[in-house]
Write a structure and sequence with these properties.
Length: about 475
Amino acid sequence: MSKSIIYWFRQDLRLADNPALLHASQTGKRIIPIYIFDPNDRPIGMAASWWREQSLINLGAELKKIGANLNFYEGRPLEILQKLASFYDADEFVWSRQYDGYSVARDKEIKQTFSDKGIQCASFNASLLFEPWLIKNKSGSHFKVFSPFWRQCMAENQPDSPCPRPAELRGHPDIDPFQIPLPATPLDEDADLVTEEWTPGESGAYQQLEKFVEEGLAIYAEFRDFPDRLATSRLSPYLRWGEISPRQIWSKIQFVKSHESFSEKTVTKFLAEIGWREFSYHLIFHVPEMATQNLQPSFNDFPWEENEKALQLWKEGNTGYPLVDAGMRELRRTGYMHNRVRMITASFLIKHLMIDWRAGEKYFWDRLLDACPANNIAGWQWVAGSGADAAPFFRIFNPIIQGEKFDPNGSYTKRFIPELAHLEQKHLFSPWKSKSDRVELDFQEGQYPDPIVEHEYARNRALEAFQQIRR
Ligand SMILES: Cc1cc2nc3c(=O)[nH]c(=O)nc-3n(C[C@H](O)[C@H](O)[C@H](O)COP(=O)(O)OP(=O)(O)OC[C@H]3O[C@@H](n4cnc5c(N)ncnc54)[C@H](O)[C@@H]3O)c2cc1C
């Protein structure tokens, strides 16, 4: 009887442009597609768990159409793979690569263990345009600054074209006794807009890409910083879970660029953001410690404040700064936050409240649908100033001015803070300044909090703290 092959799905929950799956289908062996809930992996939050569940249901249905069932397991991957190899008489495991420290170490151990037993483990690139070890600076090392990194990427050959989805898989007729049912992961009532706003799954990803090309791409460069403009792609959760690949996005954008009249500026800007994602993975692969440690060691002496109460108010969206609070409420209700608002809310936690970026990173990780082992860490370290090519610490966002500039008619802020809906635009981002006009403005006392910290005071305090680590 011919041997079988085990396909381990991880962050590549799709059939198209999945070179590992295509390879598995081409071996002609019986294939067992699996997903493992690994208790040692960093636990994901409620919204991301919901997304993964929906995506796995979708993937299972698609796999069934072409001949194979998706099986679920829980436990240490090495042990589960050992049991499955023996039950199914498998001589090959296949997966798409991951790049964070935990996954790299785990996969290495698995490869080593099975190669000693004569079982092959084949891994493929499904989630990056360029493998992190292929992009090197002049001295042969990894990049620490984005622009030369991206220039170097662009100087390489074009990213590979996406590969086709397998037409058919030879499923296995046997059913092993180790399987578990797919765990249900309901959303709590705080996350009331998640299902309304999102459609997980591979077909949801293509629809989102089409929508972006039709409605967002042309205005991307001009309006990507405006949270109410829907000018960005909102592809991040799909990229996070691998329902779409950057190669597919790249190839679609190249296609529309050559057939439709998009400006070079808007296309280049959008592709550069895909480039920032590549850069985050490049960094986390080469410096896995950055997941928990400052990339710039000078920040190890930063005098962070322990302030549970302020942290809680920030999480709830009750800091008294409307744009910050709108962002935090968007996150809780939708599982997403616009990029500019991520920068502002993160900056507020780190610089106005002087709370360690790791506390913010953890909260985003717990709440974001797109919570990403590379982008979230890199984003937080970028805002803190402790990361690679980061924003300088002394550049401190003024949450009032940011609101006035990037939510100029207040519709984003008012959507998430309806208690401010009656305010005129001139008062919206500093409602406390209108105290004397409150009656006139119909501002209900107690409905929306006063600022938990005064901006100028907070700014000076942060700059002084920064001076301490520069000395
Ligand atoms: C504090 C902080 C935390 C963040 N955490 C995450 C996270 O957990 N997961 C995540 O995917 N992104 C994260 N980002 C990056 C960025 O905010 C999101 O990728 C973006 O808002 C997603 O929306 P979009 O798909 O509409 O982006 P678009 O503007 O349409 O960009 C297209 C794609 O490019 C990538 N991208 C865009 N901006 C960035 C960026 N600054 N850094 C890296 N990649 C980028 C994303 O994959 C995105 O889907 C974080 C940024 C900050 C400042």
